[in-house]
Specification:
Residues 21-47 have a biased composition (Basic and acidic residues). The protein is an alpha+beta fold. The chain has two domains: 121-207, 2-Layer Sandwich (Phosphorylase Kinase, domain 1), CATH 3.30.200.20; 211-479, Transferase(Phosphotransferase), domain 1, CATH 1.10.510. Helix content is 33%, strand content 12%. The protein has a five-stranded antiparallel beta sheet. Helix 5 (226-245) runs antiparallel to helix 7 and helix 7 (308-323) packs across helix 10 (385-394).
């Protein structure tokens, strides 16, 4: 009887022994790897503990050697300050003296809700173009769902600039979202185009206001009455005071950026050059404010300035409301300075003590005579003494001598007769923004960010030649022969 042959593929005892040996070797390698990782972790913890103990010992040694005074005067090591949980009182005597119920806002982001996608600009139907400026174009539009008329401002964005949304656009959105004042235009929302891959499709939805002061002044057959000028100036000063109280500089106040609705309410608009400024103000760019409304310290290269530059612009607007044309229409920076000196007088160490320290003032050649004074009173003979005083203060060469917006609101000029006219009694005008495309004006545009201006050596010594032979009266000149 023959037995069945064993298959040559069957496992024998040698195969089983080899498999057991390989398994044992694999487990041993895994154990050695775990032991090595544990030893490395223990060495790292030991080094950190030794370093911390050495630092503590060194700190205690320095305090022991230097005494209590040195310990008090030594700079403390910087550490990150973390805000406590809401409603949890912080320990320490400093907190015991404070209100324990107050919430700490240190390093805490106060979110007013959840972030979501912006609405589409397709929710608005464009009606007509209004105007194009240095930082965007504005159109009149209507919300499709509600029929509400709004102003739609598209931000100008350089698609070749790899930095993305310009800082001017970010500042304008931030400031308009933060502002809530009856004399500041309201931002309703920010919308985007359907093609979100194109960064230039960003729009600001603003409240629609029928007029701007520039267009009204150009079309009026007669200038504003004195009572109407006072009402407009009071509203302008109120809005600017609100901005300055919240550390905001507008930096481009002019009549084309002041809107007026059919109820006599003025609103400050176009915050493309505005920014937050602390106290004291930091070093800022000099090329701000449209040329005809730019303060002399900016033209002379001041790197630090404050609210006084906005007050100079208000002075220029004041004069424009009286004459219906810009007060200082310079062709360039040098010509603008010439017109300022002709109207407001030549700066001296008495009238403007620090002007010679400005960068662009060192090379100026000024007349040697000191008899040239401000001609504002002669240029506006119908203005009352209080009105002339206010205009002289706003157009003071020395920025420290200009009144603040709050001071302007309390000026005697607004308490004299005729009293400011009620807003509801203001005349109404046909709305160019609502009916037709606004024609381009000859006024200069706002400065472009990044430009630089250097005056160089300029000779102003001859701008008053022959004036010593003139006698000036109320609004006329008489040459003596």
């Amino acid at each position: 009887m023959s037995t069945m042959a064993k298959s040559r593929w069957a496992d024998d005892t040698d195969d089983a022994a080899l498999e057991a040996q390989l398994k044992k070797e694999k487990e041993e390698r895994k154990r050695q790897k775990a032991d090595k990782a544990r030893k490395l972790e223990e060495e790292r913890l030991a080094r950190e503990a030794a370093a911390a103990q050495a630092a503590k010992a060194a700190s205690q040694g320095e305090q022991g050697e230097g005494g209590q005074d040195d310990a008090n005067n030594a700079p403390r090591a910087k550490r990150r300050r973390l805000s406590p949980d809401r409603g949890t009182p912080a320990a320490g005597p400093a907190h015991e003296s404070a209100n324990s119920n107050s919430d700490s806002k240190l390093l805490r982001f106060e979110g007013g809700g959840t972030f979501g996608r912006c609405r589409s600009v397709e929710n608005y139907d464009k009606l007509n173009d209004i105007e194009e400026g240095a930082y965007g174009w504005v159109a009149r539009a209507q919300e499709a769902a509600t029929g509400k008329v709004v102003a739609l401002k598209r931000l100008k964005i350089d698609t070749t600039d790899r930095s993305g949304l310009p800082v001017t656009g970010l500042r304008e959105i931030q400031i308009l979202k933060d502002c809530d004042h009856r004399n500041v235009v309201k931002l309703q929302e920010v919308v985007v185009g359907e093609d979100t891959s194109r960064i230039e499709n960003i729009f600001l939805v603003l409240e629609f206001v029928e007029h701007d002061l520039k267009s009204i002044l150009e079309d009026m057959p007669e200038p504003f009455l004195a009572s109407e000028v006072k009402t407009l100036l009071l509203q302008l000063a109120s809005g600017v005071a609100y901005l300055h109280d919240n550390y905001i500089l507008h930096r481009d106040l002019k009549t084309s950026n002041l809107l007026l609705n059919n109820r006599g309410q003025l609103k400050i608009a176009d915050f493309g050059m505005a920014r937050y400024v602390g106290d004291p103000p930091p070093k800022l760019t000099q090329l701000v404010v449209t040329l005809w409304y730019r303060a002399p310290e900016l033209l002379l290269g001041a790197a630090r300035y404050a609210q006084a530059i906005d007050m100079w612009s208000i002075g220029c607007i004041f004069g424009e409301l009286l004459t219906r044309e810009p007060l200082l229409q310079g062709k360039n920076e040098v010509d603008e300075l010439t017109k300022i000196f002709e109207l407001c007088g030549i700066p001296t160490e008495d009238s403007w003590p620090s002007f010679r320290r400005l960068p662009n003032a060192r090379a100026l050649r000024l007349p040697k005579t000191t008899t040239t004074k401000s001609l504002i009173r002669a240029k506006f003979p119908l203005l009352t003494s209080a009105g002339a005083s206010l205009l002289n203060g706003l157009l003071a060469l020395d920025p420290d001598c200009r009144p603040t917006a709050k001071d302007m609101l309390e000026h005697e000029y607004f308490r004299q007769d005729p009293k400011p006219k009620q807003e509801a009694m203001f005349p109404t005008f046909p709305s160019k923004a609502g009916q037709e495309r606004r024609r381009r004006k000859t006024t200069p545009n706002a400065p472009i960010r990044g430009q630089a201006v250097e005056l160089g050596a300029v000779d102003f010594s001859g701008i008053f030649s022959g004036r010593d032979k003139e006698e000036r009266g109320g609004g006329f000149s008489l040459r003596m022969v």
